[in-house]
Amino acid sequence: MARETRRQRRDARRAAGEEAPARSTPRPVPAGPDPAVAVEHPRRGGFIRESVAELKKVDWPNRAQVIQGTIVVIVACIIVGAFLWGADQILRPFVRDVLLGQ
């Protein structure tokens, strides 16, 4: 229904002395802060205090977990490095003879 049509019907009901019909659905509540409420800005250092508070919540790894993670990363680097070295050795003659034509 067009906005102008709704306005005309509402004005006609008011002129006749009728009450507005009850809404079938409640009005949506606007999202976000209430504009009537003043927003207080945090003082300087608020970001630092909040960051420190969040860092205190972190579940830091213990020494054994750090060592285990380091070993996994080193082994993965060795495997990938060996694969790339092997691929380089296999493709080197093809690149030298076919692509470069030397």
Total number of helical segments?
Answer: 3
Number of strands: 0
Shape: elongated
The value of Rg in angstroms is 35 Å
Question: What does the model show?
Answer:
This protein is mainly alpha-helical. It contains 3 helices and no strands. The model has no long low-confidence stretch (mean pLDDT 84). The termini are far apart. The chain has a domain at 62-102. It has helices at residues 3-16, 46-57, 63-99.
For the structure shown, list the relevant keywords.
single chain; mainly alpha; 3 helices; elongated
Outline of this structure?
The chain is built from three helices and no strands.
What topology does this entry show?
Elements: H1 3-16, H2 46-57, H3 63-99
